[in-house]
Amino acid sequence: MTQTVIVSAPGKVHLMGEHAVVHGAPALLSAINRRVIVSVTTSQSGLKIQSNIEHALKKQADKLIAESVRVVCERFHISPAPSVLISVNSGIPAGRHLGSSAAVSVATVGALLYFFKKIWNPELINTLAFEVEKIQHGTPSGGDNSACTYGGFIWFRKELDFLKTIWQLPYLVHKNLSPFYLIDTGQPEENTGEMVALVRKFMDELEDNGRLLLFQNEQATKDVATAVKYGNEALLIDAIKRGEKTLEGMGVVSPAILPLIQDIEKAGGAAKILGGGGKRGAVGYVLAYYRDKKKLHDIVKKHGYELESVVLAEEGVRLESGRNK
Amino acid sequence: MTQTVIVSAPGKVHLMGEHAVVHGAPALLSAINRRVIVSVTTSQSGLKIQSNIEHALKKQADKLIAESVRVVCERFHISPAPSVLISVNSGIPAGRHLGSSAAVSVATVGALLYFFKKIWNPELINTLAFEVEKIQHGTPSGGDNSACTYGGFIWFRKELDFLKTIWQLPYLVHKNLSPFYLIDTGQPEENTGEMVALVRKFMDELEDNGRLLLFQNEQATKDVATAVKYGNEALLIDAIKRGEKTLEGMGVVSPAILPLIQDIEKAGGAAKILGGGGKRGAVGYVLAYYRDKKKLHDIVKKHGYELESVVLAEEGVRLESGRNK
């Protein structure tokens, strides 16, 4: 009997609050319509991992998948190492702040849990995927894996070392709003850990001015959450612009992409970096909101990039199939 | 058949975060070992209310109790008005920021729910008691009734107009710490609503300096939560002092009681106002922490007040008896 389990998980964007979340402010995340699909099937020749992750990040992804196996097997005392083939088919560009790593962890853990134990428990998937993320990234906030697991909009705040707030906001994007867009500026030179360390150092130096940046960022995050709920476009654009300004103040918006953001703002829209951002060159994906798609397309084209539509508040981790053959 | 239901609920203190909580910062509340006891029994002559609440606040308490009846009856379509005798026996001094009003609402709602419906559901008690509080107080945060309902330590933050964080922290006061104390400075001239309005006006004027006050208050609240969990006395005293300073900055610590607080600090302890505080004269109760009870007693005596021990993280709303006779 060959058994195959297929599980998918979405990528994520930070609508606002990345970096600030490390310093006690809230983050608003959203699952997006880019998914990673993981299948687990019985193998005749030990643990095998296949993935379509692009070359530069393949080794890292393979390690993530191997760690997912280890964490699940440890949790359920599965020994010796299982003989399974794990295939990862990702539609989330890696290393560009769209949560590819969290999505791979969540989908792999979800598929393994169902493969070995016929358990479908998003709470447990999230907990174990966070374990995997910690091994990989040191001190992740836990926001990414929560967004990939639960889907929708996630309100996240680290209150205390031992207390994190994670709420799924019970709404979608209001129908008054037009679509959001993604713009790929390429893979940043710096990884998120380096950017977090950079901001920490910078915030220490800024002292009270750093605290005021955090305060403004928090207000922007709250306003984005409110604007998306009630379809208040003027507030949304204003809040993204204010939030982006604070990210610039934190030093995570590379000068190379500032002109793109400024052109979108000048036209009457708003755009922001995502996640770690970038210091010098590319910043990964940029999130943009602007009602006139044609005009936005022209601006983006002028800067040498492509425009991609994106749907927010997508479904979280999902069991695609778990049949016995 | 005469049926009698008896329910009790604790009062509360703000360990830190009062006032700041109105502006987005967190509050740390604790249920205390002062309780209100409410009994509901069948009556032959319509709705009757008895209470031992002191004269000046009796009318207000009676209204609170009548509103509790109305809210519960409305929720369960109980009509006509029930013929019950409600007796309130309060061990929580009223009008002094110990949560007397929330405790009365919670215990009365709890007793009525059990009397009419044999339902014991703290979640529902909290929701309905919050309705009662809103009728009485306009825009309460919901922190007080949560502390009186759930007991223990409550971490409370209003994130958005439609999102409140309420966590019960899963620990008691660490055994390394000595007891906390209460000092009754008398009933403040101003009520909490007036004090909240005062701070709001003040914060608007302060602009960035107000935001920094909030930031410091938030840090103090977090440090108190951490210190109480791990029994870090030095951090606890330092955090209460820092938090009290921010409350002074907000204008809610009456000059009349500042010398008391300063004397406790000079001796090596810490003390703070509670809840609304007060602008001119008395501030209601003051919360103090100091290891040497004798010395603290002398300081308090010198200022003409009495020292009372208080136990934190007490049990929340409790069904004392619900027997049929």
TrEMBL record, chains A, B:
Q: In which pathway does it act?
A: Isoprenoid biosynthesis; isopentenyl diphosphate biosynthesis via mevalonate pathway; isopentenyl diphosphate from (R)-mevalonate: step 1/3
Q: Which residues form the GHMP kinase N-terminal domain?
A: 64-152
Q: Where is the Galactokinase N-terminal domain?
A: 5-41
Q: Does the keyword Lipid biosynthesis apply?
A: yes
Q: Which GO terms describe its biological process?
A: carbohydrate metabolic process; isopentenyl diphosphate biosynthetic process, mevalonate pathway
The superkingdom of the source organism is: Bacteria
What UniProt keywords apply to this chain's record, in alphabetical order? ATP-binding, Cytoplasm, Kinase, Lipid biosynthesis, Lipid metabolism, Magnesium, Nucleotide-binding, Transferase
Under InterPro entries, the record lists: GalKase_N (IPR019539), GHMP_kinase_C_sf (IPR036554), GHMP_kinase_N_dom (IPR006204), Mev_gal_kin (IPR006205), Ribosomal_Su5_D2-typ_SF (IPR020568), Ribsml_uS5_D2-typ_fold_subgr (IPR014721)
For this UniProt entry, the molecular function terms from Gene Ontology, in alphabetical order, are: ATP binding; mevalonate kinase activity
Name the Pfam families for this protein. GalKase_gal_bdg, GHMP_kinases_N
Q: Per the record, GO CC terms?
A: cytosol
Q: What is this protein called?
A: Mevalonate kinase
The source organism is: Candidatus Roizmanbacteria bacterium RIFCSPLOWO2_01_FULL_45_11
